Structure formats: structure tokens, C-alpha cells
Amino acid sequence: MTATARMSLAALLAVLAAGVPMFPLTKDRSYLFLALVLIAGSVMVALLARRIGVPEPVVRLLQLAPALVVPWLIPAAGNPVKLYRSTVEYVATAFAPMDYDPGFAVFCALLLWLAYLMVETLANGLAMPAWTFAPLVLPYTISALALYAETGPGL
Questions:
Q1: What whole-number percentage of the chain has pLDDT above 70?
Q2: Terminus-to-terminus CA distance in the chain, angstroms?
Q3: What span, in angstroms and rounded, lies between the C-alpha atoms of 108 and 31?
Q4: Closest by alpha carbon to 42, among 123, 134, 138?
């Protein structure tokens, strides 16, 4: 296993672990599964692309391909404008912990997937793994800003 492959897998685990602080926001955990599918797809695409010698900037573009499966996994995502509007209305009226909403699940999953893409770009693309702290702290920041009450260590 190459160093970039190990770094990509470490980034996958780090981003999924960074998704745990979002637990108090919603009762639903399906966003972690969707994020895992997206991130694992990006990891596999990157590993295959690097194996055949694709230049690193093209690898970054190819890693966006797993987004094509989102409408297949969550049919409501087939109409992104409608999903966006319903999600904004839902988040504006709901209180944490929120029930399942497809738009919020997609939003959380895409947030984690984008965090992975940033972490992987910093770690492998730019060879600056120390800077991965910034995208990994993003879910913690969102939870800290969205929750008004303190949470215990067991979440």
C-alpha cells in the first residue's frame, strides 16, 4: 500500500469520526452512511486513478464522480432546488435533535464529503497534512454553533 493510499484511508476515518459531533443535531444517522458511500467512492476513484498514472489535478476532478449516486440513494435529491427549499424550511422550524429529513441528511453527508475532499487535497495533493485540522474541525464548529444546551460526553 502506497503512502498516498494510507493517507486517503486515514482521511476517510478522520472525516467519519469528525461526523460524530453532529449526532446531537439529528436523531437520524443515515447521513453517516451516505457520507461513507461518497467518501469510499472518492477513495476508490483516487486509488484507481493514481494506479494508472493520472495526474493529481485530474484525480481531484475524478473524485467528484461519486456525487452522481446521491439521487440514486436518496431519490428526493433528484430535484436539488426543491430539496434545498424544503431543507431550508425544515431547518428553520425544527429543533435539535431533528427527525429524519432527506435534505438535512444529504446536507450533512455532502458537508462531510467536501471535508474529506479538502483533507485529501491538503494531505495528498498539496503534501501539507498538518493543515487538515481546519476542515476536520468544521463539524465540531457547526454543532457548537447550532446547539444551545451543553451535551454530555456520551452525546
A1: 94
A2: 35
A3: 6
A4: 123
